[in-house]
Write a structure and sequence with these properties.
heterodimer, A: 806 residues, alpha/beta, seven-stranded mixed beta sheet, 29 helices, disordered N terminus, disordered C terminus, B: 277 residues, six-stranded mixed beta sheet, two-stranded antiparallel ribbon, 8 strands, 39% helix, 16% strand
């Protein structure tokens, strides 16, 4: 590819008035053409509209018309109608489909009907979103000319405003943490809100999964209890991105059946999707060019002064690295360096507001972000989205792709596949991207750790009265919770917090439980990163990640600027950094130790030829110890390894649930696992399983931890452990246990299709890590596991014959 | 409950210790002789009444000295014109014991000391929660008595006691009686007058320095929650000590009021954070 032709392409791209030309360039130029595995065009969609529901107050209709909304989209009308008829409703459509109006109309309607007496509570997953929406709602209330108040109640709310809000706030916008620790435990102060509570609106419901979602489900149980105590029975109005099982998810979250509205009837311009696979650099090794480097190259085509582009990266370091690359290349892109911004959750609020504002105003032309910009913060609609790597779930994919597409204008979204099993799988099966979401969300409100902590909080709020049968089945909030009465008994007997007297469990301690119970979504145990000289905060990081990101000597990045961590005061959750000019970044390594505590379920298959077991899967509880051992220094651009240092930090301990796969020694020998570098191949298989897990369950790769043993101390045979990386587990390993066949099938598919010969990062891992026979061995094992009879239920004890032969 | 569930809970829950104060108290209690059983009368009537005789002293002042307090001085100190017509005999002197300082629904107000004057005699009714299930009853009795008075006098009650009582009343659907009640919280005017003079502005310090109150074997307020928990669990308890402590607190309200209403401040009262009503 000669330099001239390339420059010509850039010039053409920069001069392009519409994306159509850009796309055609990408499809025709030799340099790019071969790398796009697939193009998908979604034709422009005309809006499907309906007149306003008849029950709707004419003043609201007028308000909409004045805002340029002459009628509603079908999904909005259906939602509003269902809400006005008293149902609990969920709208699960992509971003920018007008979900806000769905809940605003019923809420305002009820206010009008009750002359301002009805109250509504809104829950947003971030403070920023809540504050955004307050402004929106206030404007609407003003447009109606009523004296109602919409206010954010969060950590930033000044005390004087708090009191007004409690007494007279008609629309209270808050977040789950504030509800959990501020509002519910002090419900007497909010008695008026609870007495007249008509609606509970929850936005971005698809983010409520895992530990956080399971905790929030319990916070909602407490909310329902308290509302009932003061005499109200609020309706739930839920908004979400598209989900694989929306009805089931909503049911688990709010404890009741919810009407689901899932067809997006909003209009959109023509949407073009490109799935880009970086070129193979080494076919034998299966090495592809780095997705991040490809993004940098593509930027020359995709960025320009005439439109706005957003890059989504999976990791914070990637955001920093790419932002830095692009700022340095600003001139070649036809931009000023300050028109290119980086964005992530660890940035301080003011900086984030500034960037969001710049995007809305069109001043920021390029933004590089983590999933922080996936949620509904208003940044206007952009034109081009580049996803550097598959974000791990279809919901996320569509949220990110949904960031582009102005009304009636074409948009472009490009997914750059990484050398990663899931990415490569989707590069070859892009239809899975465009179909209905496949991944299931892990949500377990009855997780014992979470339930017991939340029951403490609930008991603090209102005592629990036992029913005639000794249980609490009639409790409006926790009635459906598994084993709740038993957990209460446990707390009464073993802890000093509860006392059972005369059939009632009372809170009996000089303590405020909500303070010590964290919801898991945002660790109050966060580590603050401070400028060592000024002591001012420059960022924040969660505690489990801190041991690998802000250890002493780590390079910490903020908007492309590099800081070096001088000291990490682990005990006091503070890291001190100094600004440096660094030509390298750092990556830490960890050692993981898994100990089996208790096995709950097992399925196994006997060998065909002789007595004895072939293989098993298990589900149970484990204790995991994670130790950060050392970090590597890696030069920017060249990715050269320029050194390594030790890390001296305490280990992180975790009690959780795991999915385990074991192979009997006989079968392992037959499959060639015993000859040659067996440990490496087995480990490669484990890594692959972990990395294809997002195809069967909604999780980030880091939500699952892994540990492989050629000879597990517990099972005394080869074992692969995949564990929930959260205390107590949230059902991820259970989903894996039930979906083991889909998991193994996907893994085999990845290996079968992979272009490499012996192993590469896109399947089992590079040969340096898995050995020359790694890929072959893993494939043989998977084929064996998938062929023949299915697994059958089995005892969790390891049989004597197996032990004898072990 | 199945064995396995208990085991699992024990393993999964990283049990935080009961607050150090409770454990500390329990440890101290180990060596003590059991306290007397609570009088039946108390349990039955939801409260006990302690009457004093006119002329009874609390420290260097007589309790009835409160009746001599200058209402204009008090009105200025209270920064509330409603106290211009203040009659100490029409006031309710209030102090409570709770199970915690943090407020919130799970904090119980289990002892409510309410002092009143009648025919020159000061009496203190101490409402007691002998069973958490009887909370509503106690709160109704307290609400009734607060409603019946014209003024409330407390020490730090505007910031604490009043809110604890109101919260609990609201939980039980009892209309809180404090909203329009003129409330003289002695902490603020005393703090304005004596800040920096004695090292702190705690009730114990002020009653001692200003009114010469000496308490013998006083059980500190921090022991109150544990005393109640012990009683409820049938363990040896220190409730009598808490009752005495509460009684002394209420009496000090009367004598501090007497002190406040007796002295004419020599220097102009400095402006502070308390806004004029």
């Amino acid at each position: 590819m000669s330099g001239d032709a390339r420059k010509g392409g850039e010039r053409r791209a920069r001069g392009a008035k519409d994306l159509g030309q850009l796309v055609r360039a990408l499809q025709s130029e030799p340099r790019w053409r071969t790398r796009f595995e697939r193009w998908q065009v979604v034709p422009p969609r005309v809006a499907r509209v309906e007149p306003f529901p008849e029950q709707l107050d004419p003043r609201l209709v007028e308000m909409c018309r004045a805002r340029g909304i002459p009628e509603l989209y079908e999904h909005q009308a259906r939602f509003v109608r269902a809400a006005l008829e008293g149902e609990d409703v969920l709208v699960a459509t992509p971003t920018a489909s007008g979900k806000t109006l769905c809940y605003t109309l019923p809420v305002l309607q009820r206010l009008l009907e009750t002359q301002g007496r009805a109250r509504s509570l809104f829950l947003f997953p971030t403070k920023a979103l809540g504050q955004d929406q307050t402004a929106v709602l206030s404007k609407e209330v003003e447009a109606l000319g009523e004296d109602w108040h919409a206010c954010t109640y969060d950590g930033d709310t000044p005390p004087s405003v708090r009191r007004t809000l409690r007494d007279r706030g008609h629309l209270v916008l808050t977040n789950p943490w504030m509800l959990h620790a501020g509002i519910l435990p002090n419900h007497a102060k909010w008695s008026e809100l609870f007495r007249d509570l008509a609606f509970v609106v929850i936005d971005e419901v698809h983010t409520l999964s895992g530990v956080f979602g399971s905790s929030v489900a319990n916070v909602l149980r407490r909310l329902v209890r308290i509302a009932r105590h003061y005499g109200s029975n609020p309706q739930f109005l839920l908004c979400s991105a598209t989900l694989s099982e929306p009805a089931a998810h909503a049911q688990k979250l709010v404890g009741r059946d919810v009407r689901v509205i899932g067809e997006d009837a909003s209009p959109s311009g023509e949407r073009t999707f490109g799935v880009y696979n970086p070129p193979l650099l080494n076919a034998v090794a299966g090495l592809r060019a780095s997705a991040l480097e490809e993004a940098r190259e593509l930027a020359r085509m995709l960025c320009g002064p005439g439109h706005q582009t957003i890059f989504f990266c999976q990791r914070r370091t990637a955001v920093e690295v790419l932002t830095r690359y692009l700022k340095e290349a600003a001139e070649a892109l036809g931009l000023q360096p300050d028109e290119i911004r980086g964005y992530r959750g660890g940035y301080l609020p003011d900086l984030r507001r500034e960037i969001e504002q710049g995007l809305r105003a069109g001043k920021v032309k390029v933004v590089v972000s983590t999933n922080a910009l996936e949620l509904g913060i208003d940044i206007g609609a952009l034109d081009v989205a580049v996803l550097v790597g598959y974000p791990g779930s279809q919901a996320s994919f569509w949220q990110r792709a949904g960031r582009v597409g102005r009304r009636q204008k074409p948009s472009l979204a490009v997914l750059i596949a990484r050398s990663d099993p899931v990415d490569q799988y989707l590069a070859h099966h892009p239809e899975q991207l465009f179909g209905t979401p496949q991944e299931k969300l892990g949500l377990d409100p009855d997780n014992l750790v979470i339930l017991s902590e939340q029951l403490k909080c609930a008991a603090f709020e209102l005592p629990f009265r036992a029913d005639a049968d000794g249980g609490i089945g009639s409790d409006p909030g926790f009635g459906a919770a598994r084993d709740a009465a038993s957990v209460l008994d446990y707390l009464a007997e073993e802890s000093r917090f509860l006392t059972k007297r005369g059939g009632t469990w009372w809170w009996m301690a000089d303590a405020y439980p909500a303070q010590d119970v964290n919801l898991g979504g945002e660790d109050p145990d966060n580590v603050l990163v401070l400028d060592a000289s000024t002591k001012k905060a420059i960022g924040e990081i969660d505690r489990p990640s801190s041991i690998t990101t802000v250890h002493q000597g780590a390079i910490y990045q903020v908007e492309g600027e590099t800081w070096k961590i001088e000291t990490f005061d682990h005990k006091n959750r503070r890291a001190y950094a100094r600004r440096v000019e660094s030509d390298y970044f750092t990556e830490a390594e960890v050692d993981v130790d898994v100990r089996v505590l208790r096995l709950e379920e097992r399925a196994s298959r006997p060998r065909a030829a002789d007595p004895g077991e072939d293989w098993s899967i298990w589900r149970g509880e484990v204790h995991v110890t994670t130790l950060a051992t050392q970090y590597k220094k890696i030069r920017f651009y060249t990715r050269e390894n320029v050194g390594a240092e030790d890390i001296h930090l305490p280990a992180e301990e975790l009690d959780s649930e795991a999915f385990v796969l074991t192979l009997s020694d006989e079968s392992a020998a037959e499959l060639g696992l015993m000859a040659g570098d067996r440990g490496a191949a087995w480990r490669g298989l484990g890594m692959l399983l972990r990395r294809v897990a997002p195809l069967v369950l909604s999780c980030q790769p880091r939500d699952l931890g892994i540990s492989t043993h050629v000879r597990s101390p517990h099972f005394r045979r080869p074992a692969i452990f995949l564990y929930d990386a959260v205390q107590g587990g949230v059902g991820l390993s259970e989903i894996l246990f039930r979906s083991q066949r889909a998991l193994l099938t996907a893994a085999l598919e990845v290996i079968a299709r992979c272009a490499c010969t012996h192993g590469c990062p896109a399947c089992v891992g590079p040969t340096e890590e898995v050995g020359m026979l790694g890929k072959e061995t893993a494939r043989r094992i998977l084929e064996h596991l998938l062929a023949g009879p299915a697994l059958g239920k089995s005892e969790t004890e390891i049989s004597e014959s197996a032990e004898a032969s072990a | 409950m199945s064995e396995s569930l208990r085991e699992r809970l024990a393993r999964l829950r990283r049990e935080p210790e009961a607050g150090p104060s409770v454990r500390e108290q329990l440890a101290r209690r180990a060596a003590r002789t059991p306290a007397p059983v609570l009088p039946e009368r108390l349990v039955r009537e939801q409260g006990i009444l302690a009457r004093t005789t006119p002329g009874d002293r609390h420290g260097s002042l007589a309790l009835s000295d409160a009746l001599l307090a200058d209402r204009l001085v008090l009105a200025r100190d209270a920064r509330d014109e409603r106290f211009a017509g203040f009659d100490p005999a029409d006031a309710l002197y209030l102090d409570t014991e709770t199970t915690g300082l943090s407020g919130g629904a799970g904090t119980y107000v289990w002892l409510v000391g309410l002092g009143t004057f009648a025919e020159g005699r000061f009496s203190v009714w101490q409402g007691f929660l002998s069973e958490p299930a009887e909370e509503r009853l106690l709160l109704e009795l307290v609400a009734e008595r607060v409603r019946a008075c014209a003024y409330v006098v407390s020490f730090f009650g505007k910031s604490f006691d009043r809110h604890r009582l109101e919260d609990k009343m609201r939980m039980h659907g009892i209309a809180p009686p404090f909203a329009d009640k003129a409330h003289l919280d002695l902490y603020w005017p005393l703090r304005r007058r004596h800040r920096g003079q004695f090292g702190d502005c705690r009730l114990r310090t002020l009653e001692h320095e200003l009114c010469g109150v000496e308490r013998e074997d006083d059980l500190p307020g921090s022991f109150a929650p544990a005393a109640w928990f012990d009683f409820l669990h049938g363990r040896p308890h220190r409730l009598e000590g808490v009752f005495q402590h509460n009684l002394d607190d209420v009496k000090s309200l009367a004598t501090l009021l007497a002190h406040l209403g007796r002295e004419v401040p020599s220097a102009p009262v400095p402006a502070t954070e308390e806004p004029l009503k």
